[in-house]
Structures are given as structure tokens and as C-alpha cells.
Amino acid sequence: MARAAEEWETWAHESQLPPRGPWRTWVFLGGRGAGKTRAGAEWIKALIRDGRARRIALIAPTLLDARAVMLEGPSGLLSGWGERPQFAPSLRRLEWRNGAVAHFFSAEDPPSLRGPQFDAAWGDEFCFWAHPQETLDTLAHALRLGDAPRLAITTTPRPLPALLDLLQRKDTQVTQASTFANRRNLSRAFIAGLEAAYRGTPAQRQEIGGELIEQLEGALWSREQLERLRVESAPELDRIVVAVDPPLTVGAGADACGIVAAGACGQDLERRAFVLADASVQGASPEAWSARVAALAREVGAHAIIAEGNAGGELVRTTLRLVAGDVPVSLRHARFSKRERAQPVALLYAHGRVKHVGVMPALEEEMCAFGAKDFRGSPDRMDALVWAIDDLLLHPALPNVRRL
């Protein structure tokens, strides 16, 4: 066991090791592939090995993430050096020979942390939790065993209010690492793909560098703004649409097909839109993306499908009509640039007239990067969003009765 600890400390880069000195919360901000999960797992193993923790909470964005990444993943608690604990899936529990027990939880369900008590906790991908602040607050009351209960957070950074608040606390220590700090454990193909995707883009410092970027200069939206506009559910909506930004080509290098569902309710200046889902898909054939559009339209009870017709025109309409059933399909033609079309929608966000139901990471990442210096690529998800909000608030059709 001691040898396992020595080997890990030899192999780990500095940011993967817990800070020296007193702290209650350790936040490890890292780029993609920076070794965040391994750092969290090895910290938990060390606590158990040394007898410093016997009741542990493991929190992930979803229960599936907890099992697939924190437990069974190549860097998880069931991998690597040291003792392999007994895994009881039905109980969502790991058990070590010395009696230590770890339970795993989903950040989708903060109340599940009420009742249990722990002397250590590890939260993975905090910035992708559905309810970060509520989960953190509930966990704080559960971390009450032992002389010095501690929490480790491992995440790719996003400027969430919950994270910003956590970083400002006096008992929080931070380590930070780029993807390249863990280069020797990553394939060349992975690094090349990551660089191709992000190098020269506003998101490079965040996704590769692991830096916390609060606002990209020139971007039309900010993450802090979107957090303020987030809600858990939508009211009864009088019109629901699925908007589509079709791609020109198919395959690995093709643009994504932007597919966004949104609805609205209210009258005149009191009318509000609610973004319901992002079902965008990259590289799919027309048959595949149109089927995805139709499925989303059925799921949300859409009254119409709105599709950009600049590329494909009537072929796009025909493709969608074949699968849309009785949902009307309308084409829209862009006469202005993407930025010119997005600006009125961004203004509606600034006035609080658009809300996001839940978290849509890929869409929101694109929104918060669009318009910033060095932005490149096609903002297909955002484009679909713009068409949806344009239909609902800027050029609204007559309200419909929502189908049940």
C-alpha cells in the first residue's frame, strides 16, 4: 500500500497532488485530459489507506457519470494502484477491507445528500452539475464527521457563480493544470484532435489551459448571464417550435446540424421564451438529422418546425416533411450575417425575456464564445437557437393551444 502511494506521487504532476497546509476545499481546475479524475481518485484512496476517512461521498453530474468515470473509468477508484474495493451497484456503494465506505450521488438530486454524513467528499466535473449551489450547500451540512472533513472538486472550469464563490473562500485551495501537464499519459491523436478543435479559439485557454475565463471580450452572451436566466421548468407554453440549421455536408469534418427546441407564453412585452432542449448532432446524414428533429418535435409537442433554407431550400423542407407527420415545416432565409441576426436575440436575453430550462453545455459554450475575438467555426447550435427565438418573440405567429 505504501508503495502504491510512492508510485503515484512519483508519477503525478504537481497540480494532481493535494495542497500542503490547512484547507477545507481543494479545487483542481484542469483542461481536458489534465488528470483531474485520477487526482480525485488517488486522493480518496490515500485517505482510506491512511485511515483518515471512513465515510465518503462521491458526486458526479449524473449517476451514470459517477459509475462510468469516477468508479469504473480508467482513472477511477476501481482502477490503478492499490486495493480494489468491493462494488455494490444496487446500493451505489464501495466498501474497503478496513471498513471504509463510499456512496455515490448525482448532482441532479441534491436532496439525496440529506441524512447521510461524511468525513470526506469528492465532486467531479462540478461545472456540469445541474444544481451546483444547492448540491454544494446540502453537501456542506453532510460533511460533519471527524476532526477535519474535506472536499475535493475536480472540474474543467466554467465561470459559474457557485464556483466563483467557492474560489473566494479563505479555506479553499486551488491547483490548476493544462492538458499538456498530463501529456505523457495521453495519446498523440487525442492531443492533436484537441488542438485542432480549440487552438486559436476563445475556448482554448479554458478547455486546454484549464483557466477560468469569466467573460470573453466581444461575445454576445456571458455564462454569468445565462446562469441568472436558468430555470428548472417552463410554465404552460402557447407555442413550441423546433428550429433547425441544416448542414451542407455529411461526415466527420462537416458542420453540426443545429437542432433546438423552445417555447413561449405571455403577451406583448410580457411574452417570454424558454429554451427547452439542444438536440444538435454532428456528421449525420439528412435522414438521421431529420429523424432527430422529428423525434424532438414529438417529445416537446412542437407546433412547428422552423428550418433555415439558405442551403438546400425546398429539399430541406421535403426531407423534414417526410418525417414530421402533421407538424408544419416553415423555411426561413437569412438576409443578414449571423452576428446581425444574433444581436436582437442577445438583447432579449439582456432584458430577461429568454430563459434556459436546465443546462445545455454545448449550446451555452457556443453562445458564450460567439462574437469573441478569434472565434472560428460555425455556430450551428446558436443559429438554430436564433431562429427559434426569432419565431417566438421577434416575428411571432399566432399562439397555439399546446397539444397534450
What does the model show?
By secondary structure, the protein is an alpha/beta fold. It has 2 domains: 206 residues, P-loop containing nucleotide triphosphate hydrolases (Rossmann fold, 3-Layer(aba) Sandwich); 172 residues, 2-Layer Sandwich (Nucleotidyltransferase, domain 5). 33% of the residues lie in helices and 20% in strands. The chain contains 13 helices and 16 strands. Strands 3-4-5-2-6-7-1-8 form an 8-stranded mixed sheet. Strands 9, 10, 11, 12, 13, 14, 15 and 16 form an 8-stranded mixed sheet that branches. A hairpin with a 5-residue loop joins strand 4 and strand 5. The longest helix has 15 residues. The protein is elongated and about 65 Å long.
Give the secondary structure arrangement, pairings included:
Elements: H1 2-11, E1 25-30, H2 36-49, E2 55-60, H3 63-71, E3 86-88, E4 93-95, E5 101-106, E6 120-124, H4 132-142, E7 150-155, H5 161-167, E8 172-177, H6 188-198, H7 204-207, H8 223-228, E9 230-231, E10 239-245, E11 256-265, E12 272-278, E13 281-282, H9 286-300, E14 304-308, H10 314-324, E15 329-332, H11 338-350, E16 354-357, H12 361-369, H13 380-394
Entry keywords:
404 residues, alpha/beta, Rossmann fold, Nucleotidyltransferase, domain 5, 2 domains, eight-stranded mixed sheet, 13 helices
Short description:
With 404 residues, the protein is of the alpha/beta class. It has 13 helices and 16 strands.
